[in-house]
Amino acid sequence: MPEALSIAAAYSWRLLVILGLLAVVVYLIITLKYIVIPFLIATLIGALLVPLVHFLERHQWPKWLAVTVALLGFFAIVSGLIVVVVSQVRLGLPSLQQQSIAAYESFRTFLSDSPLQLSDKDIDGYLTQLTDVIQRDSEALVSGILSFGSTAGHVLAGALLSVFATIFVLIDGKRIWAWTVRLFPRRARAAVDGSGQAGWLTLTTFVKVQILVAAVDAVGISVGAWILGLFYGGFPLVIPIAVAVFLGSFIPVVGALITGALAIFIALVFLGPIPAVIMLGIVLLVQQLEGHILQPLIMGTAVKVHPLAVVFAVAAGSFIAGIPGALFAVPLVAVVNVMTEYIASGDWRTNPRPTLSYVLDDGR
User: What is the pTM assigned to this prediction?
Assistant: First the structure.
């Protein structure tokens, strides 16, 4: 047998085994999504709160009190954001509806008086075609909404699982990880333990840096809206937009851009086309700031994943699991990347307890 064919066959069956393993993992994730997603949410929350708990413990706080304060503080902030968003939406929705109707009528008048000379029949025909396209291309979304009643129980169960899993991560995370390591053969435990610690450091750094990036996106777009005058009387929906931008920024690349489109829509409805174009420029400017400064300098240092890999990871995560897939894709890829490099480099033999400097310095 030719040597080239033998080498190709050796690579081929190994790649097939790896792809088969990945296919099984993806299948299990999709099948057990109501368990996997709460666990991943609890892991992200734990990565955010564990450093706070350790900080309080170092300042002589009892562990139970540190965990309680961290959890209550987190839930208080989340609940406060929800209350602010709901109250502001209820306050601003009637005004938005009225302005939307007025803007729609003005747009029809503009089309009729423009050089296009479109009649009401022509406009209604184009709107009907647009509606048909939207309905045809959104069957999956409609079916998802219609099935919400059947999945509401799963959502509630998932929320409870996330809360309980977060509590146990904060209270007994080290023992849980030690038990996981003992499932592996003795000779592999040092490598698994060290890679897990490196992955956890990467995850905690990612969460903290992502909060900073999301805050910059939200503040940048909110300040732009304030400059345009959207914060002056009668435009309370800008506050929910700022919160939406903050939350959407946790989905890299596209999250803040999609939520920023809501700010553009409000500017168009309340202020007109020119302010909407200016708002579009502000959103794009904030995205350029994130993409060319924050992501390479801050996020790139923390995650060690190439921007192209980030784009494809988000796309693949969205294709496999929708919004949750897009949310967890980048931290999952970052953690797997660090753990793989740690094991493959053999650093677990000389550095069994990797520190944050090891992760940030890419192992050098």
Answer: 0.74
